[in-house]
Amino acid sequence: MLNSKTTALRTGAAFLCMLVITACMVIEGDRHHFETEEEENENWYHNISRDSWAWQGADPEVIERVLARIASSKNARRDPNLLDSVKDYGPGHWVFEWETAGDQVLDFARKAEQTGETARARKLFFEASSYYTTASYPHLKNDALAMRALNKARLSYQAGGRLLEVPLQTVRIRHGQHAFNAYLHLPKGPGPHPLVVQSMGSDVVKEQALGVFSRHLAPRGIAMLSIDMPGIGESGAFPLTASSDILHVAAVRAMRRHPSVDGDRIAVMGASFGGHPAARILFRKELSLAGSVSICGPLDSAFLMEEDDYAKLPEMTLDAVKDRLGFSKEVAWEQFSERFRSFSLAQQGIYGQSAETPLLVVTTHADPVAPLSDLKPLVQAARNSHTVILYEQGHCPDKDVRYAVAADWLTDLFSRL
Amino acid sequence: MLNSKTTALRTGAAFLCMLVITACMVIEGDRHHFETEEEENENWYHNISRDSWAWQGADPEVIERVLARIASSKNARRDPNLLDSVKDYGPGHWVFEWETAGDQVLDFARKAEQTGETARARKLFFEASSYYTTASYPHLKNDALAMRALNKARLSYQAGGRLLEVPLQTVRIRHGQHAFNAYLHLPKGPGPHPLVVQSMGSDVVKEQALGVFSRHLAPRGIAMLSIDMPGIGESGAFPLTASSDILHVAAVRAMRRHPSVDGDRIAVMGASFGGHPAARILFRKELSLAGSVSICGPLDSAFLMEEDDYAKLPEMTLDAVKDRLGFSKEVAWEQFSERFRSFSLAQQGIYGQSAETPLLVVTTHADPVAPLSDLKPLVQAARNSHTVILYEQGHCPDKDVRYAVAADWLTDLFSRL
Question: What is the complex's ipTM, to 2 decimals?
Answer without folding.
Answer: 0.79
